[in-house]
Amino acid sequence: MKLKEIDRTAMQAWSPAQQHPIYLATGTSAQQLDATFSTSASLEIFELDLSDPSLDMKSCATFSSSHRYHKLIWGPHSMTSGERVSGVLIAGGENGNVILYDPAKIIGGDAEVIIAQKDKHTGPVRALDVNMFQTNLVASGANESEIYIWDLNNFATPMTPGVKTQPLEDISCIAWNRQVQHILASASPSGRATVWDLRKNEPIIKVSNHNNRMHCSGLAWHPDVATQMVLASEDDRLPVIQMWDLRFASSPLRVLESHTRGILAIAWSMADSDLLLSCGKDAKILCSNPNTGEVLYELPTNTQWCFDIQWCSRNPAVLSAASFDGRISVYSIMGGNMDGLRQKQVDQLSSSFGNLSPFGMGQPFQPQTAPQSVVLPLKKPPKWIQRPVGASFSFGGKLVTFENAKSQQQPGIEQQQQQRHHVYMSQVVTEKEFLARSNQLQEAVQSEGFVSYCQKKIDMAQADFEKNVWAFLKVNFEEDSRVKYLELLGYRKDDLRKKVNVPVSCACASTESDEFVPNEGKKVQATEEQFLGEKVKDCKQETEDLGSAEKTFSIPVSGDVDGLITQALLTGNFESAVDLCLHDNRMADAIILAIAGGQELLSRTQENYFAKTQSKITRLITAVVTKNWKEIVQSCDLQNWKEALAAVLTYASPDEFAALCDLLGNRLESKGDSLLQTQACLCYICAGNVEKLVACWTKAQDGNSPLSLQ
Fold first, then answer.
1. How many Cβ atoms are within 10 Å of 494's Cβ, its own excluded?
2. Which of 125, 258, 549, 557 has the most crowded Cβ, counting Cβ within 10 A?
3. Alpha carbons 696 and 672: distance in angstroms, whole number
4. WD repeats located where (predicted)?
């Protein structure tokens, strides 16, 4: 698509690849007149600003020249990164003169911009090229087979590549080899091309077509293959591009016949050897693959011929074409839409008619809206956007890599067939222990051997926290998980039964004076057996006394508390009987009677009991009776987190179990204590909350270790 345009009838030259920003130099073309028949000439420099959506290019400087030009190139000689503009502009004039300009002085507005000039040639200088290996060497060609090699460091005396070719003829094209620095090629309108070896100072091969209709208008070396070059024919009877290989110079290697009329200019991309530009008298600008002959892209142009075409040195997707209608157009081969160009044409037409209709109706000019015009890009991606190499990791330590290997071009074989694309797959092992543990886990998952896997982790664990985590994880895959969680917390029913295995049918078991507290230290625990023995003797004595007593009892109906309770029971008034027992602080009798009185009376009695009784375990008993475990989890001392978790494991219903474990884990984690944070992990394991477990575990452990992450 078209990016920019300049209304000039001029030769053109892009700034070198090292130059930024990108500039385009234009010099008034020789032997061409514009519509004004002006005989003045100028040298201008424009800046390429692709961020500006308009088609106009910004003019940076204009230098009025006394010369018109047949050829213009911008060489990188003496370029320095510190200067905004550098290099040297080299122009071929009408009168055999080669002129060197300083682009920095032109942009700076200096009056003296010419570095040097020589009138050594005979006739106009139509051919110029800079040696890409030694940028101080410039080749020029003119009439009578004249070819000179100029040294920009010593411009006074040029050299010649050898004896002039016979018969004498004009030099229309000249080009340095892109691979071998001492090889130069020249061509003439007769269709003959000569290859020079500057070390031998003589021509080494001549290439010509036996068909006299081959009038050479363009010459270019292959960017990658040293022995290949192309020649373009200007003759309408033979509008072809011939590709030659000097190893087989008897006939062309390939002939491109995409144009219908003579070809005026060609340009081979240095960034992609599969892209060759050509413009001809059929008003076409084609981008072809010279290695296959396929047309990859046709630029949308008007009906005017283009006499010069060039690739941008810095941006490989940009090119410029100078046409005989007095316009230089800048294009992109990557496609786009033409709305900007159409809008400019509409604006120009509108301004020409003063915003009035061009059909004389006196109405304001309102252009019709055309459908969006989209220009497709190349048929194949250019090489500068292709990756030469690449790599990507996948699961399991697999590494996939690719490379686009360059192969030496063989004559007669298409490059697409020669180019090889290799994809490699390899196994990368950087953490051997990590990989071994991953394999063990994979085997456990496939065989469902989770219990044995966790047991191995427990046996290998060195820290208590790690052992506890794997022990709790192991329980997930076993039956009766809650019972086993309790055992891990230190609560075994069998052990507790042994501790409290005392007869409870004796009246002496409830005497307050003989109360035994098993949690008051080692000294009390040491006399436990003695205590139990004495209690058993007392129980036996009471049993004997009761057995010998008479098996009769009295029913008191006096006015005291016992009598009132008796009367309430005889009339079935359990509520009054319970109230009397509570008033007399006979809690056991009140509870027993409330059971007989129904659930409502029992609940109210329990509330009164808990309100009057205050001990260390009252709240626990309250939670057991009322099943309110959320309050225990929320308000318990976090140093007793094990007891709270044990209570939840014993009493919580399946619907509330996970939420209560989460709640306890959140309290432990938010406390900020590193030890409590590790215990929170165990709560999250019981809850089955993997997300919170991982987050909490990461805080408690080294989360950056590969083995820990595994």
1. 7
2. 125
3. 11
4. 118-160
3-state secondary structure of 353: coil
What's the pLDDT tens digit per position in 480-526? Answer: 888 888 888 888 877 767 766 654 444 444 433 343 333 333 333 33
Q: What distance in Å separates the CA atoms of residue 477 and residue 458, rounded to the nearest whole number?
A: 15
Contact between 348 and 30 under an 8 Å Cβ cutoff? The reply is no
Contacts 24+ apart (CB under 8 A), 579-582: 582/608, 582/612
**Six-digit token pair at 708?**
């820990």
Residue 704 — φ and ψ, nearest 5°?
A: -95, -5
Measured distance CA(489)–CA(468) in Å, rounded: 10
Tokens of residue 100, six digits: 């060197």
- Indicate the pairing of strand 88-93 with strand 69-75: antiparallel
Listed residue (151, 266, 247) closest to 198, CA to CA: 151
Cβ atoms of residues 683 and 665 within 8 Å: yes
Note the pLDDT tens digit of each residue in 161-172: 999 988 899 999
- Strands 228-233, 318-323: pairing is unpaired
Q: State the Cα–Cα distance between residues 131 and 710, nearest whole angstrom.
A: 60
Rounded-to-integer distance, Cα 144 and Cα 24, Å: 31
Calpha distance 154→118 (Å, rounded): 12
Give the N- to C-terminal CA distance of the chain in Å, as an integer. 54
Q: Which two tokens stand for residue 362?
A: 């006196």
Give dist(CA 562, CA 579) in Å, integer: 12
Q: Rounded distance, CA 92 to CA 386, Å? A: 37
Q: Please state the pTM of the whole predicted model.
A: 0.60
**549 band by pLDDT with thresholds 50, 70 and 90:** very low
The Cα diameter of the chain in Å comes to 159
Lowest mean pLDDT among 49-53, 441-445, 663-667, 695-699: 695-699
Q: Amino acid identity, residue 648?
A: V
Nearest to 43 by CA among 73, 16, 64, 20: 64
Contact call for residues 351 and 365 (beta carbons, < 8 A): no
The per-residue pLDDT for range 142-153, each reduced to its tens digit, is 999 999 999 999
Pairing between β-strand 228-233 and β-strand 336-337 as defined by DSSP bridges: unpaired
Cα 620 from Cα 637, distance rounded (Å): 13
DSSP state, 355?
A: T
Q: Which tokens in the block code for residue 426? A: 């390899």
